[in-house]
Amino acid sequence: MIRHIVCFKLKNPTPEALNEAKAVLLSMEGKVEEILGIEVGVDFLHSERSYDLILQVTLKDRAALDSYQSHPYHVSVVKKHMHAVRETSVAVDYDI
User: Fold this and answer.
1) Domains in the chain and their CATH numbers?
2) Which of its termini does the chain have fewer beta carbons within 10 Å around, N or C?
């Protein structure tokens, strides 16, 4: 099993922008078949080192991660939106 985590800092982290980004990320559930589990969280601490939003996805294996990364819905809807609203992001992928 693979855990894929991405933390996002948004250009304009208003409550509306955060809720929209969260909804877009969660919209992959049921559309991207490789996803076995998905969780999205919004930071409440707002410290200097905090990121605004986290995506955590569970996938079967590395082949599923590769397929997820190039899935048409992920690329055309989710990545498109997140690249437009993010200031920066960091990711980690690891075996669980």
Assistant:
1) 2-95 (3.30.70.100)
2) C
